[in-house]
Amino acid sequence: AIWNLGSINLDMIYSLPHMPAAGETLAAQNFSRFLGGKGANMSVAAQRAGSVVHHIGGVGPDGDWAYDRLASFDVDTAHVARSETVTGHAIIAVEPGGENQIILYPGANRALQEVDLKQALSMAGPGDTFICQNETNLQSEAVGYAREKGMRVCYAAAPFEAEAVAAVLTNLDFLILNEIEAQQLEASTGKAPDALGVDDVIITLGSKGARHIKGASGTVRDVPAHAVTAVDTTGAGDTFTGYVLAGLDQGLSMEEAMAQASVAGALMVMRHGTADVIPTLDEVNKAKL
Ligand code: ADP
């Protein structure tokens, strides 16, 4: 099974005639609410890829909608705690041309309690996969426990923060990042990805595919992207990551898992939206790209 210490956000999208100026009050013409957060997206992707997924996270007193939404994707929410802190949310203002401005408030995602994390991971063990991203607190504690438990320990270095990666690096089996994050990592550590002491590193390269680097040997394997017409690339990376983890969790080789993830990523960029439209394994298997 997959254990994901991850963010749960409310993405609140407001359509505006134009961006408000300083001091201006502006009525939105339309409002919609979606489940978001890299953590929640990865949980949904791994579940749709056929794995059992336990989400470890938190929502606030206003968190019923997000909690129920995550549970509706058949992700296990037994370890999603309730805190006094407001649910993490993004206020997304969109102009007619599609340009946006985003206010992000981490809220409950950064107020997780160590006792809850320990309790959750006490149920996990060897053969299980652990993943976290950089949108919660307790990342370094979590990778430490996960390693003690003998889990496969994975980290998605997003959003990139040099100190956050440095705090988990020695306990990782698997690191996944996009091209920009990989450049930031190389700049902050002064080391190439294969010299970090991590067994498996994947760098996703958008429409150029993805690269797997074997840590010990430096062996590089490139997995091509599928040529598709992208309409919305939001969530492509989270979908790819969820699919790779699920593939490995279900016993696929890295090459097979990445090939499946590449199809899932391609289908994802052809669709508008995030968690709601992450492709299922059935769609991935039937896709003709
Ligand atoms: P992120 O969203 O984290 O920046 P990427 O943009 O690298 O991640 O995308 C993750 C994966 O999704 C890529 O490795 C690729 O397999 C797939 N993907 C992303 N963009 C495209 C695209 N335009 N066409 C086909 N596949 C894509």
Automatic annotation (TrEMBL):
One of its GO terms (cellular component) is cytoplasm. It holds the Pfam family PfkB. CDD domains: ribokinase (cd01174). The active site is at residue 238. Requires a divalent cation, most likely magnesium in vivo, as an electrophilic catalyst to aid phosphoryl group transfer. It is the chelate of the metal and the nucleotide that is the actual substrate. Belongs to the carbohydrate kinase PfkB family. Ribokinase subfamily. GO terms for molecular function: ATP binding; metal ion binding; ribokinase activity. Its main location: cytoplasm. Keywords: ATP-binding, Carbohydrate metabolism, Cytoplasm, Kinase, Magnesium, Metal-binding, Nucleotide-binding, Potassium, Transferase. Activated by a monovalent cation that binds near, but not in, the active site. The most likely occupant of the site in vivo is potassium. Ion binding induces a conformational change that may alter substrate affinity. Catalyzes the phosphorylation of ribose at O-5 in a reaction requiring ATP and magnesium. The resulting D-ribose-5-phosphate can then be used either for sythesis of nucleotides, histidine, and tryptophan, or as a component of the pentose phosphate pathway. One of its GO terms (biological process) is D-ribose catabolic process. It comes from the Bacteria. Homodimer. This is Ribokinase. Transmembrane segments: none annotated. It is found in: Cytoplasm. K(+) binds at residues 232, 234, 268, 271, 273. Substrate binds at residues 9-11, 37-41, 135, 238. Pathway: Carbohydrate metabolism; D-ribose degradation; D-ribose 5-phosphate from beta-D-ribopyranose: step 2/2. It catalyses: D-ribose + ATP = D-ribose 5-phosphate + ADP + H(+). PANTHER family: RIBOKINASE, SUGAR KINASE. The gene is rbsK. Its cofactor is Mg(2+). ATP binds at residues 178, 204-209, 237-238.
